[in-house]
Amino acid sequence: MATDTQGSAVDDHALGQPADADSLAQREEELHKARLSAKAKRKLRKSSSRDSGSGRESFSESADGGCSKGKMGDKKSRSGKGRGLPKKGGAGGKGVWGAAAQVYDVEQPDIHDPNYDDDKQGETVYQTVVPELDDSEFEKAVTPIIQEYFQHGDTKEVATLLRQMNLGSKKSKLPFLSVSMSLEGKASHRELISRLLADLSGKQLLTEDVAGAFDQLLRDLPDLILDTPEAPQMVGQFVARAMADHVLAAEFLDSYKGKVDCEQTRQALDKAAVLLSMNRGMRLDNVWGVGGGLRPVKQLVKEMNLLLKEYLQSTDTAEAELCLRNLEVPHFHHELVYEAVVMALESNSGNASDLIVKLLKSLWESGFVTLDQMNRGFKRVFDAMPEISLDVPNSYSRLKGFVELCHQQGVVTKALQEQCPTRDDRSSVDDGTRNCIAEAAQ
Q1: DSSP secondary structure string for all residues of 161-199
Q2: What is the mean pLDDT of residues 133-144?
Q3: Cβ contact 92:98 at 8 Å
C-alpha cells in the first residue's frame, strides 16, 4: 500500500517537472516582451522633442505592433515623412487663434462677401447722381421756373434752380422754351428773357445751345404766328439782341444767306439785320422799350393823362383797363386816381364826373386798383385842394358831390368820405392861423 503511494508520488513529480519548465519559459518570454514594449515607449516619449527623422523611423519600426495605442493621441504626422513638428506649426487644435507672434496682413474686403458692410469700411464718399430730364419732365420742371422769373426778375435765382437739374443734351431747349413763353407775354417779359440769356451765356449755356434754340424758333415760325401774329418781328428782335449781347455768334445771320425759303423766317432775319445795322457797335438795351418802373415819372403821368382823355371820348372801360395794365406800374395806380379826380373837378362837361366814377368803379371791382392805391389817390386830391381851388373856384363843392357819388357806387369807404375837406374847414383853419399870428404880434 505504501509502495503504491510512493510510486504514484514519484510519477506525479516526474510529470510536473516539464510543466513547470514550460510555464517558466512562457513567463520569461512575456517579461521580455514587456521590457521591449516599455523600452519602446520610453524611446517614443523621448523622441517627441527631437527633430531627427531617422530616429523616428527606427522608433516607428521598433514600436510596430506594441505601441499602436500610444499613437492614437499623437498630433504629429503618422506617415513618417515629417520633421517631427506639431501640426500647423502649433497653431492647430481646438480654441487656438494661431501661432504665437504671428502677424496677419491687412485683407482687402470682398464686396461679394455675404457679411460685407458698406458702413464699416472706413470713410465712404457719397455722390449725388441726378438723372437727366426727359422731354416731359423738362417742360414740367422748367415752365414754373420761367413763370416765377417773370414775377421776381432775379436771374441768379433761375441759375441756382437750373444748376440743381441735369439738363444734359436738352440745354438748347431752355432758350427755346423761355423765348416761346415770352412771345405770348408782355414786352417786359421779353426783356427779362433777353437778360436771362445774357447772364446764363458762358456759364450754363453755350453759344451752340442758344444757336440751336433760335434755329428751332425760326423753323417753327409758321406755327408760332397762329398764336402770335407778330412772332417773326419778335424773333428777329430776339436774334438782334442776342447777337448784340454776344450770346449768338456774329456769323449767325451769314449762315442763313441764300438758304431761306420760308417767308416768316426771312422776315425775322431781315428785322434782325436792320436792327443791327442801325445800332452797329452799340447794345440794343431798348429793343423791347422801357418797361414798367424804369420809365420816368413824367412820362408815366403823361401816358395816364392821355389814357383818361381817350377814355372820355370812347367810354370803353375795358380798353382803358388794358392800357393801364400794359403800363405795368401797379405801384403807381394812385396817380391815375389822382389825375382822374382832378380831371372830373376841372371838366365843364356834365357827364365827365359820371364817366370817371364808372371807370374807377370798374377798376375797383376788377381788383386791378387796390384799396390802398384808391385811398392814396383821393388823399392826394384832398391835400392839393388849396392849389386846385385857385384854378377851380367851386372845387370844394364839386369834390364833395363827387366823393358822395363814389361812396354810393362803393368806390370809397365811409371813413374816406368823412375826410373830404370843405371850404368851411379851410376858413376855420385860416381864422385859427390869423389868431395865432395876432397873439404872437401882441
Answers
A1: HHHTS--GGGTTHHHHHHHHHHHTS-HHHHHHHHHHHHH
A2: 87
A3: no
Q: Quote the pLDDT of residue 78.
A: 59
**Residues with Cβ within 8 Å of residue 132, at least 6 apart in sequence:** 166, 167, 168, 169, 170
How many CB atoms within 10 Å of residue 365? 12
pLDDT at 134: 83
Instruction: Give yes or no for residue 62 having a pLDDT over 50.
Output: no
368 φ/ψ angles, rounded to the nearest 5 degrees: -70, -35
- The span from the CA of 362 to the CA of 16, in Å, is 157
Calpha distance 292→364 (Å, rounded): 21
Give 102 or 346, the one with higher predicted confidence: 346
Residues 6+ apart with CB under 8 A from 420: 382, 399, 400, 403
Residue 333 near residue 293 (C-beta atoms within 8 A)? no
pLDDT of residue 131: 82
Q: How far is CA 95 from the centre of its chain?
A: 57
120's grid cell: 464699416
| Rounded alpha-carbon distances, angstroms, from residue 241 to 225, 257, 265 | 20, 19, 17
**pLDDT for residue 302 is more than 60:** yes
Task: Enumerate the β-bridge partners of residue 205.
Answer: 201
Helix axes 371-383, 333-346, angle to 10 degrees: 50
Q: What is the spatial distance between Cα 74 and Cα 66, in angstroms, rounded to a whole number?
A: 15
Helices then strands, counting H and E runs in the chain, come out as 19, 0
The Cβ of residue 160 has, within 10 Å, a number of other Cβ atoms equal to: 10
Query: Residue 227, Cα to own-chain centre: how many angstroms?
Result: 33
**With 50 as the cut, is the pLDDT of residue 429 above it?**
no
Closest among 348, 338, 333, 354 to 406, alpha carbons compared: 354
Task: Pick 319 or 64 by higher pLDDT.
Answer: 319
d(CA 179, CA 174): 9
For residue 14, what pLDDT is reported? 46
Question: Which pLDDT score is estimated for 340?
Answer: 93
Query: Whole-angstrom Cα distance, residue 200 to residue 242?
Result: 12
- Give the three cell numbers for residue 175: 432758350
- What the block records as the C-alpha cell of 214 is 433760335
